[in-house]
Design a protein that fits this description.
Length: about 130
């Protein structure tokens, strides 16, 4: 039984050897930076500006959620495109309905103003011009 484990042992030894080699080579060939911000965490040598407690508009998170939702839908469309021959016409009409629902959701979000980033004053002025 122990004979079947030797390939995994060789694999782990190769990983450790490769990792050690990369660390040693990068230590000797790498550049040395002694800038003021090099030791700061998460800044990668770039001098930070402002505070980390900056306030972000809630609309940013709303748009990020819309992006994730519609990006996920593109995965379903791609999977459908791969299997379109096996699915036939019924699969085509189901995907047509799926995309129709996505377009209806996008139109709804657009009409509600969820995708509008302009300040309230500009929205009010635009509303007066439309009326």
């Amino acid at each position: 039984m122990s004979e079947s484990y030797w390939p995994i042992g060789v694999y782990f030894a190769a990983i450790i050897l490769l990792t050690a080699t990369m660390l040693v080579v990068s230590y000797f060939l790498g550049q040395r930076h002694h800038d003021r911000a090099t030791g700061d965490p998460f800044e990668s040598g770039i001098v930070s500006e402002g505070t980390a407690r900056a306030r972000i508009s809630a609309k940013f998170y709303l748009v990020a959620m819309f992006f994730v939702i519609f990006d996920l839908e593109s995965v379903f469309v791609f999977a459908w495109a791969v299997g379109t021959r096996e699915l036939g016409w019924s699969g085509y009409f189901e995907m047509l309905m799926f995309i129709g629902i996505l377009v209806a959701a996008l139109v709804y979000l657009w009409r509600v103003g969820a995708l509008d980033w302009s300040p309230k004053e500009k929205q009010a002025a635009a509303g007066k011009r439309r009326a």
